[in-house]
Amino acid sequence: MQNKVTETSEQRLIHLCRKGDRKAQKAIYDRLASKMFPVCIRYAGDRSVAEDLLQDGFVTLFSKLDSYKGDGSFEGWARRIFINTALMYLRKKDALKMSDDIDNARNMTSEYSTQVQDMGYKELMSLITSLPPGFRTVFNLYVLEGYSHKEIAEMLDITEVTSRTQLSRARIWLQNRIKEKGNV
Asked: Which candidate, 43, 52, 38, places its Cα nearest to that of 140?
């Protein structure tokens, strides 16, 4: 019964937002900001940039609200907007150029760490946000968002092989950082 109430109130808020109601916009912001900020920070790797991305994402969300047709969850639709906002930022900053990151990864080993399970969520997220931008972007899209290498290649205008390589090297980079922290 509560899901129906939540869905009805969410639909009502969306309807009011489409009419420009500021209180409804604030309510949507309050519901989504705490869920979308971690998405932004995972891609940005920097808190102040993530705050800007969050604001930009909400501007986009409210300007494109008419394109939400009600198919699927509103939160899922919103999440795509925030991911795309972050990807656009990374493209503008040329952060998706991966040649430097690839060169720096050549000497990495591929030892697997079972200690990741023992790490706390915050510590693991901190390591993920410290990944070089190219690695971090592919890692987030594949591991955390669930996109396929084909979808990532299309989104980032790279090949599927590059996507797979970046993911592999991101994992190696993370394993090496975990080892350096003495968690192995």
From this structure: 43
